[in-house]
Amino acid sequence: MNAVDSLRIDRVFLEKAAQRPDAVALVVDDRSWTRADVRRMAESAAAFLRERGVGPGDRVLAQYTTDARDLAVAVAASGLGATLIPVPTSLGGLELSHILRLAEPVVAIAHGAELPHGTTVPAGVAVVDVADVTDVTEGRGIEVPCLPVPTDHTAVIGVTSGSTGLPKGVMHTWSSLHYAASHAAAVVRVRDGEAICTPGASAGAPGYAFFTYLGLAHGATIVRASRWNADAVLDLMARHRVVWSMTVVSMVRMFVDAARKRPEPPDLSAMRAMCVGGSAIASSLVHEAKDVLGVDAIRMFGLSECLGFATMSPADPLELRAELDGYPYAGTEVHAFDDERRMLPPGEVGEAGVRGPSLMQGYLGDTDPDSRMAPGGYFLTGDWIRMTDDGHVKVVGRKKDLIIRGGYNIDPSEIENLVRARADVLEASVFGLPDERLGEIVCLCVVPQPGAAPGLDEIVDDLRARGLSTQKLPQVYATRDAFPLSPDGKVLKEVIRREVQAERETEAAR
């Protein structure tokens, strides 16, 4: 057995299941499954997939929500030496067709009899129902075989959200998954038998690494709600004494708002930390999480292409955790780069470049693998960062979100954080819209608090009073009852942008 084989999800989970078969592996709402339950389904899945020709090096695509059947498929596919492609059930037919063309899996596993409407399934790909794959009919299963794979074997292909175009397949090895999950678990000392919670997406590379892999490999009980609801997730966290969770900024805000409406706050005293990533988080929200939820919200920096590679620690002072986005894990290097891909010194803002053990192998079907690489093997993430003198990372915005108004560069996150601080605003999104004279102008879209109706004039007056430069003041304004979210809980800013632009064009045509 090579060193990589010892990191595989089938090997580490089956060892845990043998040690404590009655330990709870998964909780979804009010239902739970033991490690023995998952193992039995994995044995059935292994038999089913092997009968359909799945073996080492093959690919298995599966709609994935981290229910017990999905965990079983993950263990079975790994045991057969196959590569798993866990895709969200929300992925539409157009996007799913694209991934199927690129990946050419042997089997596509659906949550139901069929894949989404509009999906084009390539010839030779068998579409099967996950209920049939994991059926534990007596005598049907086999012992999960744990077939050998090479050290550079692609363990998982995560699918990006596709918020700005067709999704990409991000390829990771067992080594990169193990590195990211182990370091995340070490931050809060996740121990065998303790509970972790996945409030958001469980598909894709981050969801697989930090919930399926971390949970099964470390013997943690994975706790989740079948549907996103802040109150339901808070109750599950309290009931199962969850010690750690990873979430995104929008969900933390919803947790805080939900807790404020309760006569008594939820009992989250068992939680050692809640990691937050996906986008820049306002310092005020870190303080609110502590004041309202009693939880240490710690920033974590990572992405599908390079799984969590920097984080703050619960031991860091609150003032430091509220301002900085992480210190790189051992073996990972992070630097800022300019537009010519030259490394910048600490204190200067540039695009984040990272290299380390959790970096992906590459994109599925990529014909230009060097397009996002800086000299020295650093992957350019698209985030604007500033490195401190002592090596901490401060994320200051997203490169693609930058608004250029009459030659003046505007970071949307600065405006968003100021607007979110208002008592009458639940969520805010700022982006640029095309303008003939200035190139781009600033658009603000908000989700008001229930019963509130903030207007553009009063928001602009407030921003001006708080010292925001005139060039950054919003000129276009829209409201929504809720923002569209990706499967991992990120606001789909491009969707909002297209909607608002279409509304402006319709109005102009009248």
TrEMBL record:
InterPro entries: AMP-bd_C (IPR025110), AMP-bd_C_sf (IPR045851), AMP-dep_synth/lig_dom (IPR000873), ANL_N_sf (IPR042099)
Residue span(s) of domain AMP-binding enzyme C-terminal: 414-490
Pfam families hit by this protein: AMP-binding, AMP-binding_C
Keywords: Ligase
AMP-dependent synthetase/ligase domain location: 15-364
GO terms of molecular function: ligase activity
SUPFAM superfamilies given in the database record: Acetyl-CoA synthetase-like (SSF56801)
PANTHER family reported in the protein's UniProt record: ACYL-COA SYNTHETASE, MEDIUM-CHAIN ACYL-COA LIGASE ACSF2, MITOCHONDRIAL
UniProt family annotation: Belongs to the ATP-dependent AMP-binding enzyme family.
Designated name of the protein: Long-chain fatty acid--CoA ligase
